Amino acid sequence: MAEIRSFTVTGMHCAGCAAAVERAVRKISGAEDIYVNFATGRLNLRPGAGYPGDAAVLDAVKRAGFQAAPPTAETSAAVSEKDRREARREVRRFVGCAVFTGLLTAVCHAHWDFRLGGVIQALLLIPVLIGGAGFFRRGVPALFRGAPNMDSLISCGAAAGVIYSLILLGSRTAGHLYFDAAAMILTLVMLGKMLEARARRSTTGAIRALLHLAPPTAQLVREGTEITVNSADLRVGDTVRIRPGEKIPADGTIVDGASSVNEAMLTGEELPVPKRVGAPVCGGTLNVDGTLLVRVTAAGEDGVLGQIVRLVARAQDSRAPAAALADRVSGWFVWAIFAAAALTAGVWSWLGTGAQALHYSLSVLVVACPCALGLATPVALISGIGRGAALGILIKSGAALEQAAKLTALVFDKTGTLTSGMPEVKAVRPVGSEAEFLTAAAALEQYSEHPLARAVTAEARRRRIGPPPPAVDFAARPGFGVSGRIDGRRWHFGNAGMMAALAVPLPEIPADLTGCTMIYGACESGFAGMIAVGDTLRPESAAVIEALRRRGVRCSMLTGDGPGAAAAVAERLALDGFQAALTPQGKLDALREMRRRGEVVGMVGDGVNDAPALAAGDLGIAVGSGSDAALESADVVIMRSDLREVVRMIDLSRATFRVIRQNLFWAFCYNLIGVPLAAGVFSGVGVILHPAFCAGAMAASSLTVVLNSLRLLRFR
Q1: Which residues participate in catalysis according to the annotation?
Q2: What's the pLDDT score for residue 233?
């Protein structure tokens, strides 16, 4: 599947702008899965057959009235600095507009001559129009392009009030002037957009916090001399010196020195990990108490921290299925409001006066809020995914977050997930020589990374059995075992399924080994013995299963271990079910069967051995791994090796979608109620909204959605 292409889009000021960009890019042949996220200012798409290249995308965005660029580190930094400068200018513009709007309002309420007061009001309005020129500069061209946005509504509303007032003033016919309404509309909307933008920047704090984990500079050692360089300039093969208390600038391998490294940014564990020569270290982790020389193996975006930043940024840019309705509505919302305003003007021109027609149609134009709809889902997703990243829970997409909130069943792997992952050999029961049998087992298992294989090789070392001899014709059968030729004889070590395939009869498992996982051995075609391996449950496993059950999630286990060991674990944890002696294909089939029964199934594993199963469920959750394999195979990566984080992840996802539902409810209800009120539907009972009040309500609506989403940043 083609890699997703991302672009930074500048100039968007509302959900209508995002919809216009999306419509323009959809006309490009070969552009698929297009999503424009107004909250992050990003355009994502997947190139398909016939994709003409990025230049066509940039040109389409430009024709829509905006600017786009690939989000390289340099352009991202430039955009960030540009945003800061623009924010400072917005504050100055708002203060100036607020001062003149206050003076204009005071003149409006003074009992002056109509003509003199009107001229003074018009003069005081000029600085406000200059300060709010951006609304006209963005809104009017968008209207003529056939893709109106919120700025189009504001600019049309303000212009209508100004033009009506100038005509009234020129005719010397006394009446209500709307100079003050136009000024207050522009000023209040400016304030609302300024506060909204500031609040939205708070939701992206997770990315900034992750970027700040890496130190800005590094001590590069070259020909025995240290020089200070930017961490971004490090390259693979460089050697850097890290002193006590300094952060490691890039992924690498220790070539000299020893220390303890705090890897809490990866694992959540504050206890420092001892590191010696040859040990790997990750960029962003903290060197505690020794001086290290580290040879860089991955720098910048290629390191683990860079991958995490990229993963979180991509997740925050993704579209959740819950956003589909709001996105569709945002696409035609502005046209619908223009139609409602025109209908309001026509009805009141017939039923009332021209002044009433202007008053109510103006109120309709400025009360409607497409931004509240457009922000309802993405800002909550950004906050939820960002909060997860701060807690060490990496959620790869909005769709994954939504699936986590809907989970009805969780399937756990056994070894390394429900258990500690550090199995030990409990007994060796050979038919012949114990030393020969264990030596053969270690000779084959040394080539495997499976926890059971490591237990066998560790037992051989513990018993001081010499280095295992090399194996010839080694073969591994995933889900079954290993085989190879040692000293001229063919040995096989694996589970009961492997022995059945070899037609090797097995004895009964001794009563004292019930509950252990059995590794059976065969030499040539005869049974040679068995190795009993036991594992201990994680201390938190039982509490986690009970917590999930209280949340309505059924818990079961799929494992390749034998039925006896699996049954013992399932009984101790009171699981809802288990299947044992499964091959990797058997796990896939079991997950697919659960999904066919209508379950929303999550698979919890270690992210390496369980990669196929993690991909087969509705949601794959890798626990306790920051490896490349985990980042690729799972939808959710829990960096800390603690099953309680699975419960926290589900709670976070459900909290996020509660906020999304609240936002959508507010956004739809606000517009459904606000537009009829502004149109004067209830004027007969004395409910009449001033256009300035409508402008303030519109600004407050967007801000309410953003502030509600920011509550997720305090999730515990």
Answers
A1: 413
A2: 86
